[in-house]
Amino acid sequence: TEQLAASMPFNATKPFEHGFANGVQPQQGAKAGPPSRLPTGSTLSEENGSEKTGSIATEGRNSTIEPLDRVRVDSSGQMLTTNQGVRVADNQNSLKYGTRGPALLEDFILREKITHFDHERIPERIVHARGSGAHGFFECYEPQTQLTRAAPFREAGKITPVFVRFSTVQGERGSKDTARDVRGFAVKFYTDEGNWDLVGNNMPVFFIQDAMKFPDLVHAVKPEPHHQMPQAASAHDTFWDFVSLMPESTHMLMWVMSDRAIPRSYATMQGFGVHTFRFVNDAGESVFVKFHWNPIAGTHSLVWDEAVKISGADPDFHRRDLWERIESGAFPEWELGVQVFTEEQADQFSFDILDATKLIPEELVPVRPIGRMVLNRNPDNFFAETEQVAFCTAHVIPGIDFSNDPLLAGRIHSYVDTQITRLGGPNFHEIPINSPIAPVHNNQRDGAHRQAIPRGRVSYEPNSLAGGCPFQAGAAQGFVSVPARINAQDEQGKVRAKPEKFADHYTQARLFFDSQTPVEQDHIANAFRFELSKLTVPAIRERVVAMLRNASEPLAKKVAMGLGMDPMPEPLPLALAEPAAPEVMKSPALSLLARPGDGSIKGRKVAILVAPGVKGKSVTEIQSELVKQGAVARLVGPRIGPMPSVDSDALDADASLENEPGFLFDSLVLPDGADAVAALAKDGHTMEFIKDHFRHCKTILALGQSRELLAKAGFPTSMDKSLAQGGTGVLLAEADDAASAAVAFILAMSRHRHFGREMDPPLL
Ligand code: HDD
């Protein structure tokens, strides 16, 4: 036996399992893979890294695919098996005693299948349950080593793989995408010095200042506990009750009532790290930093009426948009910008940089782009990747550090903690989507679902038996916290209290509102009106208006009028009678309309209506121009299928007026052709298409005779003149002039909306 043992381990892939380790090199069996890197007779050292935990990521390559390859399963051409790899002969019938007899307990195949099914669900995220994710990369523009030693920012052109998850906050996992809500914007950087999670939102401020209040906020905004309503909505009593008693939420409420809370696409919203973080360079010097993601496609939102309708026709609107953009190659892209400032500067600001309800106006500290992020690959499997990805604010790398923001402090605890319940134990970092590409070596052991097989008998430090490994990296290579000092006057000892500037609850709420364009201000007022009109307790409504009076009297007045509230309640008492004078009274950068983007129409959806008798040549011409520009141009007919054309081959409608309602599109083309126009005029859906496009201020192109449809839908005759000039985003053209019509249409589309024709209440 000894001879045999010395020459041949029992299992070539597990050579040390049977006690023959000493001096025996594993032999290469059929499944042994590359020769083992184990030093003979040793216990454990850096050399022993397994493929799972040990391979060092190659710089400058998108290696997210590589590490995940080991767990990808592709069943094409394969036989069905049990989880033990036993081939299954019959997947239709359970094992019974005779065809009409009882099912047998011994049917391990049935039992395994049902048991696994019974346990398929895991708890959804306590907040941000509804989300969508994608893979991509971050590319550094220039080295930032003067500011930070963080791995992604060390060299121009350096590529770091990322996984990003966007989410809503309030609704459950299956809720609609277009709720009025904050959007999560969480980025996991798989850097070669470990994983860094930048877990942000699409708004740069937050409702509360201290993590102590987070469970209260979430309990207030979630569906009310007695009847579990409303789903994916903040328009209910408990939310407004809570926030109206927390004046620090005023600034965030302005953002949430703005169109930011109903983005057109994940690709057209900004992202923010929210808190003040620190950059730390090789010399250990640190500066403060705020992170901004700015979309290349510009910031574009829905309008409320549209968002409500979309949530019925396509609750997956944002998920689908993200998926389709990536599948079609219109990759969503953002620039990462930083606001960098020193502690000395921070001390001079009129607000406290540790207060997450405050932002730093870009006019005070400019945003400097340092890299770009592109999302270019959809996940293989939603559950394995998007559901199981675990973002944690505690995941930082050398070069990134925290500030003393008390909201951030609570988050550093909360995220790791919540994954333990959600993902079933402390080894969630080993789930493929979470495992770093940097090697992992430590003495943490065991726990539910452990994947790695740590070798050797040493799981403690210091040790001599493993030559001291794994050893401490030291300050030059390892993570070192900034030895930040709290300034002298703050040496108060332990207190449960806030700094004084935190008590200025209204200055930045006013700054935000005053920095919006009139259209955006109207939308904010209307959103307050809508939400508050849903409340059943009038006193809450009044308290909100009383709060708004401190931020903006015109806004408060408008909201009060919309609610039939006259006279207005007295303003709420101020927590800080004389807040410091703000540095800027307006910050144009806070307006959504300030960021039109690159002017492209990539990823935009256009409905081209068709019907039998259509003038097909002009339709095809316009469609192909739109597709050339990266837009999705679909032919929508009274039914799907071929539509005979008077001047070309039949067109193929791949959507119908019924299955793809008009509000799902960004723009509308009405075709020429007498019979087609007559057929469309007979279908009430056509009028809904036109009314919704008109009401939502989208671009409409009417070719030839189809202008009759506009009149039938009730277009105001007063618009005839501006219609002729195309100034309102409604364009008239002749079918034989399709080429120039396409150019004008694309230009008008690139403006996204034509708010000049918006009316409250709507005209159509
Ligand atoms: Fe949070 C999830 C963003 C405050 C506790 N949060 C979560 C996600 C995002 C944010 C994007 C979803 C991540 C994903 O896609 O998986 N949260 C924020 C931002 C905040 C914030 C930008 C304020 C600046 N959060 C916050 C506080 C606490 C939490 C103050 C607790 C003290 N957040 C959580 C959580 C979640 C979470 C309970 C639920 C699921 C998860 O973590 O993984 O731990």
UniProtKB/TrEMBL annotation:
GO terms for cellular component: cytosol. One of its GO terms (molecular function) is catalase activity. Its EC number is 1.11.1.6. Keywords: Heme, Hydrogen peroxide, Iron, Metal-binding, Oxidoreductase, Peroxidase. Residues 81-469 form the Catalase core domain. The active site is at H128, N201. InterPro entries: Catalase, Catalase_AS, Catalase_clade2, Catalase_clade2_helical, Catalase_core, Catalase_immune_responsive, Catalase_large_C, Catalase_sf. Its cofactor is heme. PROSITE patterns: CATALASE_2, CATALASE_3. It holds the Pfam family Catalase-rel. It catalyses: 2 H2O2 = O2 + 2 H2O. It comes from the Bacteria. Residues 1-67 are annotated as: Disordered. Transmembrane segments: none annotated. Residues 39-65 have a biased composition (Polar residues). Heme binds at R125, R165, F214, R411, Y415, R422. Gene3D superfamilies: 1.20.1370.20, 3.40.50.880, Catalase core domain. GO terms for biological process: hydrogen peroxide catabolic process; response to oxidative stress. It is an enzyme of class 1 (oxidoreductase). Decomposes hydrogen peroxide into water and oxygen; serves to protect cells from the toxic effects of hydrogen peroxide. Belongs to the catalase family. HPII subfamily. This is Catalase.
